[in-house]
């Protein structure tokens, strides 16, 4: 005989009815997280917007409203226009390089070979290790005197010691260097994203396509690529947002230099708002990130939605 | 279809060439960290030496200097304290929030969840100016406690999103059975949902900790007193005297701080990816 257990009647506490109301408990549960985010992201965000239309500096915290004067001034500043241009070059250069490396890396890691797990574990490192520390290692590799890259080039006979490039001292090479370091930091993430996408494709879909006569390239471009697009889009959101707003690589590797050649929006906002104490102009510079971020996020979200339906 | 011998050899060679390329690209800067941190200064700063291995016997001098003559041990401790406190704040707020959004609030929960996640994308370089004023108003400027206050602004959204995924993967019948047996809704959360999602909670703990170790911008903005710096900031900015970089010490410090993060990432990578890509992969 199966005996049915009596529901255990617990002594009702006065608050019991509160804890059983789904909507109420739901609201109580979510409140601390929402409050934290509202107070320390939402409110500061509005403050940043107000700073940008005020005359606020750390020496004169007046909050007086100046309209769009700050924006007019920074747009008129050639240094800022250079910064804006640098930010786009830095973002798209490193994302394209990172994606290409990521796609090829994923193709390599898809094929089983001896030691694949070990290689995969090592390839994750650039993305896992704190970027500030990895950047310092790159700074040492790009050193003007003891650069291991230059040493190798000289040893291979490709250049002579007098021609050795000063990676972080030449404006173009400095931009190239920060792009390389950022692409280096993101390519493992791109590999992992591509791998996750490709391995999530059901094998029978690919088999069916093969039976129907689709060759390698056709499978690659008409089945695999469309199917991994949503996950790639998510990866790109992260990549673009974190690169476009980056400060640490540029700050540590080249300190925005030489002569502003690697200055990007995040760096310029920091220099103006924190180092020089001109908070209102710093905030206005930082706010220039916002339209790009909004466009990227909205475009990607719409894209993901459309594909799911 | 068997390829001809020569084409096969070429294919294999280019494949392993590609493996070697990615291997060197990813690992070389870390190899460089290791070899620099164990080299004597005489060996480091000599351009006639072959830089890829030890020309003098390896030395622990840089590590000794780091622990005895710099604030490295303090930075290590600061990072540990910050990591533990931020993880605690994150768990206490994100765990119920994620459960609520996954289970209790229905369709609105989904939208609210995406909203919270999007705040993760609001960059520090947009918020650091107003937040430095908030930090100053609270009297926390130049103190590591400012980081304990501010880091949850990105760990809470991130971890709420991760945990939502874990709670959604649990079959709701288990909690329903507990409620039928006399548990309150709250009781079902504490006694059923939390124990069953322990792997998810562990993932969140690991990633909260690594996110705090990786953060640089807020630390740079709010903390300039050497003895209050977390390890990443200390190693990157404090081991320079004037124009002289202490490369051996810098690389030794970077190595010590990197190893635990690297191990954690490799152990929890798959969960991390399924977490951030959320609903994109069906």
Which helices and strands, and how do they pair?
The complex is a heterodimer of chains A (309) and B (282).
Chain A: H1 16-19, H2 22-52, H3 69-76, H4 78-110, H5 116-128, H6 131-141, H7 148-155, H8 171-199, H9 203-211, H10 216-244, H11 248-253, H12 265-275, H13 279-287, H14 289-308
Helix pairs in contact in A: 2-13, 4-8, 4-10, 5-8, 8-10, 10-14, 12-13
Chain B: H1 5-37, H2 41-44, H3 61-69, H4 72-104, H5 106-119, H6 124-137, H7 145-150, H8 152-169, H9 173-180, H10 185-196, H11 198-214, H12 217-222, H13 231-237, E1 240-241, E2 244-245, H14 247-277
Antiparallel strand pairs in B: 1-2
Helix pairs in contact in B: 1-14, 3-14, 4-5, 4-8, 4-11, 4-13, 5-8, 8-11, 8-14, 9-10, 11-14, 13-14
- The overall pLDDT of chain B, averaged over residues, is 85
CATH class of the largest domain in chain A: Mainly Alpha
Instruction: List the secondary-structure elements of chain A in sequence, H or E.
Output: HHHHHHHHHHHHHH
CATH superfamily name of the largest domain in chain A?
MetI-like
What pattern of helices and strands is seen along the backbone of chain B?
HHHHHHHHHHHHHEEH
Which class of secondary structure composition applies to the elements of chain A? Answer: mainly alpha
- Report the total helices of chain B: 14
Helix content of chain A: over 70%
Unreliable stretches covering 5 or more consecutive residues of chain A: none
Alpha carbon gap, first and last residue of chain A? 50 Å
* Shape descriptor of chain A: globular
What's the quick description here?
The complex is a heterodimer of chains A (309) and B (282). Chain A is mostly helical. Chain A has helices spanning 16-19, 22-52, 69-76, 78-110, 116-128, 131-141, 148-155, 171-199, 203-211, 216-244, 248-253, 265-275, 279-287, 289-308.
């Amino acid at each position: 005989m199966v005996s049915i257990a009596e529901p255990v009647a617990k002594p009702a506490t006065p608050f019991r009815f509160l804890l059983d109301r789904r909507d109420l408990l739901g609201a109580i549960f979510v409140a601390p997280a929402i409050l934290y985010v509202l107070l320390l992201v939402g409110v500061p965000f509005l403050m940043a917007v107000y700073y940008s239309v005020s005359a606020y500096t750390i020496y004169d915290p007046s909050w007086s409203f100046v309209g769009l004067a700050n924006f007019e001034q920074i747009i008129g500043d050639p240094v800022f226009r250079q910064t804006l241009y640098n930010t786009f070059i830095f973002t798209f250069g490193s994302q394209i390089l990172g994606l290409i490396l990521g796609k090829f890396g994923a193709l390599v890691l898809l094929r089983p070979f001896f030691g694949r797990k070990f290689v995969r574990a090592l390839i994750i490192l650039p993305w896992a290790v704190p970027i500030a520390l990895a950047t310092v290692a790159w700074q040492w590799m790009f050193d003007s005197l003891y650069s291991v890259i230059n040493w190798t080039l000289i040893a291979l006979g490709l250049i002579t010691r007098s021609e050795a490039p000063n990676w972080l001292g030449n404006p173009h090479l400095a931009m190239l260097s920060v792009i390389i370091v950022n692409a280096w930091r993101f390519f493992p993430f791109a590999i992992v994203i591509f791998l996750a996408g490709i391995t999530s494709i059901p094998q029978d879909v690919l088999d069916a396509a093969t039976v129907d006569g689709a060759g390698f390239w056709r499978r690659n471009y008409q089945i695999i690529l469309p199917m991994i697009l949503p996950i790639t889009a998510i990866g790109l959101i992260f990549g673009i947002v974190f690169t476009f707003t980056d400060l640490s690589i540029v700050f540590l590797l080249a300190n925005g230099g030489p002569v502003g050649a690697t200055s990007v929006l995040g760096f310029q906002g920091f220099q103006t708002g924190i180092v020089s104490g001109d908070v209102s102009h710093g905030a206005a510079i930082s706010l220039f990130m916002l339209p790009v971020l909004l466009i990227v996020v909205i475009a990607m979200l719409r894209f993901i939605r459309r594909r799911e339906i | 279809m068997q390829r001809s011998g020569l084409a096969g050899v070429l294919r294999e060679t280019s494949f392993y060439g590609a493996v070697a390329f990615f291997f060197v690209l990813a690992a070389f800067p870390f190899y460089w960290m290791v070899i620099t941190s164990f080299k004597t200064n005489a060996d480091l700063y000599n351009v006639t030496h072959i830089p890829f291995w030890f020309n003098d016997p390896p030395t622990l001098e840089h590590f000794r200097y780091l622990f005895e003559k710099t604030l490295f041990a303090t930075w290590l401790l600061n990072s540990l304290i910050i990591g533990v406190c931020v993880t605690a704040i994150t768990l206490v707020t994100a765990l119920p929030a994620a459960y609520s959004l996954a289970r209790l609030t229905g369709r609105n929960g989904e939208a609210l969840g995406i909203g919270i996640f999007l705040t993760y994308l609001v960059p520090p370089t947009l918020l650091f100016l107003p937040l430095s004023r908030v930090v100053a108003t609270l009297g926390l400027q130049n103190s590591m406690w400012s980081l304990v206050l501010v880091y949850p602004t990105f760990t809470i959204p991130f971890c709420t999103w991760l945990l939502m995924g874990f709670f959604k993967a649990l079959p709701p019948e288990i909690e329903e059975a507990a409620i039928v047996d006399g548990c309150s809704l709250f009781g079902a959360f504490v006694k059923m949902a939390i124990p069953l999602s322990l792997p998810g909670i562990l993932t969140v703990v690991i990633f909260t900790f690594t996110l705090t170790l990786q953060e640089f911008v807020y630390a740079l903005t709010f903390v300039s007193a050497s003895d209050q710096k977390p390890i990443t900031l200390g190693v990157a900015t404090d081991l320079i005297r004037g124009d002289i970089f202490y490369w051996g010490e810098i690389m030794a410090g970077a190595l010590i701080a990197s190893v635990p993060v690297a191990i954690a990432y490799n152990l929890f990578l798959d969960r991390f990816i399924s977490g951030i890509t959320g609903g994109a992969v069906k």
